[in-house]
Amino acid sequence: MIYLDAAATTPVRREVIEAMFPFLTNQFGNPSSHHGLGEAAAEALAGARREAAEVLGCQPEELTFTSGGTEANNLAVKGIALARRASNSRRNRIVISSIEHPAVFESVEYLARVHGFVVEVVPVGPDATVDPAVFASVLGAGTDVALAAVMYANNEVGTVQDISVLAHIATSAAVPFHTDAVQGAGWLDLAVYELGVDSLALSGHKIGAPKGVGLLYLRGGVQCEPLVHGGGQERGLRSGTENVAFAIALATALGLVDADRQARVQHAETVREMFIAQVLDRVPGALLTGHRTRRLPSVASFCFPGTSGESVLLELERNDVICSSGSACAAGSDEPSMVLTAMGIERSVAQTALRFSFGADIMSETLEKACDELAAAVRRVQRLRS
Ligand code: PLP
After folding, report:
1. Cys-Cys crosslink for 336: which of 40, 78, 350, 375, Cβ 3.0 to 4.6 Å?
2. Which atom of ligand 1 is nearest to the CA of 103?
3. Which PANTHER family does UniProt cross-reference here (predicted)?
4. Rounded distance, CA 225 to CA 149, Å?
5. How far is the CA of 141 from the centre of ligand 1 (A)?
């Protein structure tokens, strides 16, 4: 099988399983317990937080473990917006980009529907980039804005935003700035102080940790209402007995992908460029989506007019090549991707989209083989539809 859907999920790395295994078995204590077993679990959890903080270049207390990227985004978006408005009722606007993941998009939709916030959406250009000048003009003076959020790297087309510039604009207007960095982990710089963000969401299963664990960086001093109430774990921000094993898994995976990031990026960019060139050359009518260069090293996304993305995907799967038609979260619906239509791509073309995403261990020969299969699959589907 040629697995080209790493942006949907990745297998758990062996080193990660080994690191978390003891905390699922003999070291099973509850970190809140006042005995040796509990204290050992608390110590291990603190160690995981320190390790993750090292990668993000922040203080361990600024990190909250969650059940995934979705929860980390929900907590930041809802928690910060609600806290900011509670301290000043004029702050009723939320500004987001038009290509956010549903974890952010649906959170602000909820805030509008249930809490009466006004949501303003910053459009993106045809390559899915947010123009800082447009972002600044939507933000305005910022005095009535509770929160701004722009994702670091897009999950469907891989476009990477100039997050430090956008964060600086928001900070200058005294508006807290959140970024969804779920797809950026392992590829992009996550040094949060340098990025200048107030909060940043990560997910474990995109980088070799299990599904069901995530992380939220929340800059010290930024007010955030908890969404889950109970025993006051995670400094009161996220109650519930901590998942020590998964926190260790996430911290281990984050450390591993950070350790060889430069080499991984260099290799992935080289093979991605080769793959893009081959696809554009060999697949009739192929259109690259997303920014030509400011994109994740691991993502190549295209539209193949005259096909249907789902049909090509099934053809490829029949030939052992696994990819995605748009994002996994949106899969199963006939609606064209909101991200592609927000980029100005016509609905009928957006319905032909496929995303190929891979890990750093991908070989150029593997992608060559995938390109052979893709060219054949597109030809078959085009023939059937003509
Ligand atoms: N944000 C982005 C950009 C994603 O790609 C995903 C997952 O696909 C998420 C958030 C959600 O993360 P999780 O699956 O850990 O809830």
Report:
1. 350
2. 10
3. CYSTEINE DESULFURASE (PTHR11601:SF34), CYSTEINE DESULFURYLASE FAMILY MEMBER (PTHR11601)
4. 17
5. 31
Q: What is the CATH number of domain 2-9+260-385?
A: 3.90.1150.10
pTM, entire model: 0.97
Q: How far is the CA of 34 from the centre of ligand 1 (A)?
A: 35
Q: Examine the residue annotation and report whether 329 is marked as an active-site residue of this protein.
A: yes
Q: What is the rounded CA–CA span in Å between residue 321 and residue 313?
A: 8
Distance CA 77, CA 176 (A): 10
Low-confidence ranges of the chain (pLDDT < 70): 326-334
Domain spans, the chain: 2-9+260-385, 14-259
| Residue ranges of E strands in the chain | 2-3, 63-66, 93-97, 118-122, 145-149, 177-180, 199-203, 214-218, 287-288, 299-303, 321-322, 353-357
Residue with CA nearest ligand 1 atom 8 = 8
Residue 69's CB: how many other CB atoms inside 10 A?
27
Residue with the smallest CA separation from ligand 1 atom 9 is 69
* Residue carrying structure tokens 């609905």: 347
pLDDT of 309-330, one tens digit each?
A: 999 999 999 999 999 996 444 4
Question: To test the ligand 1 pocket, which listed residue (71, 183, 213) has its Cβ within 8 A of the most ligand atoms?
Answer: 183
What letter represents residue 225's amino acid?
E
Q: Does 234 contact ligand 1 (Cβ within 6 A)? A: no
Closest atom of ligand 1 to CA, residue 203: 15
**Whether domain 14-259 has CATH 3.40.640.10:** yes
Secondary-structure percent of the chain, ordered helix, strand, coil, rounded to 5: 45, 15, 40
pLDDT digits (tens, 9 = 90+) for 232-278: 999 999 999 999 999 999 999 999 999 999 999 999 999 999 999 99
Amino acid at 178: H
DSSP reduced 3-state for 367: helix
> How far apart are the CA of 80 and the centre of ligand 1, in A?
19
Contact 202, 69 (CB under 8 A): yes
CB 13 within 8 A of CB 208: yes
